[in-house]
Amino acid sequence: MTVEWRTSKGLTDYTVALAEMEARADAIAAGEAHELIWLLEHPPLYTSGTSAKREDLTDPDRFPVFEARRGGQYTYHGPGQRVIYVMLDVGKRGRDVRRFVQELEAWVIATLAEFNVDGTIREGRVGVWVNRPDKPLMPDGSVAEDKIAAIGIRLRKWVSFHGISINVEPDLTHFDGIVPCGISNHGVTSLVDLGLPVTMDDLDMALKSTFGTVFKTPA
Length: 219
Description:
Elements (H helix, E strand, L loop, with lengths): L2 E5 L6 H16 L5 E6 L4 E4 L16 E3 L6 E4 L3 E7 L9 H17 L6 E3 L2 E8 L11 E13 L2 E9 L19 E2 L11 H15 L5
Parallel strand pairs: 1-2, 3-4, 9-11
Antiparallel strand pairs: 2-6, 3-5, 6-10, 7-8, 8-9, 9-10
Helix pairs in contact: 2-3
């Protein structure tokens, strides 16, 4: 099974992307199209997942808000953030949704490792995190942690869509209008915020080089 990669330049309208994702997922399920990894950026916006709480949208008039119908809570998308829409046939890849999400997390962690960033996952918190020993300790004395990548997927006929966002160099103040993923006691960071001069092209190369180490071609 061939996996197609597509990279869109500029900023892609969210409603256009949603329609294209849904159409492609249906085509994959019908055996009429290859699996697709779609790399893009959106204009500034907030999306709400199926678990979003209205009170977590703290500045509803700041940017457009879209119902994403994916798993998860509120998420920000905008310039400088790589959005990776993942349209893969989970039905042919084991029909194990939990394992699939773990594979997405492992892919992000492997990609970050290409830049010597130690990404981690935390029980009860979807996404990928980095320790920030350069910041003040948390009230309980633990090391501060910031989120660098968000994950939220939806399945239709066992084909995934939506996916991952990794912060390369977004305006981190844009996250202030929401409680990102419902977690208020941790921050948000990016590769550039961590002091790494990583470009979007650099990240794309790392995503492509690590994909096959996590996702195997189904029989």
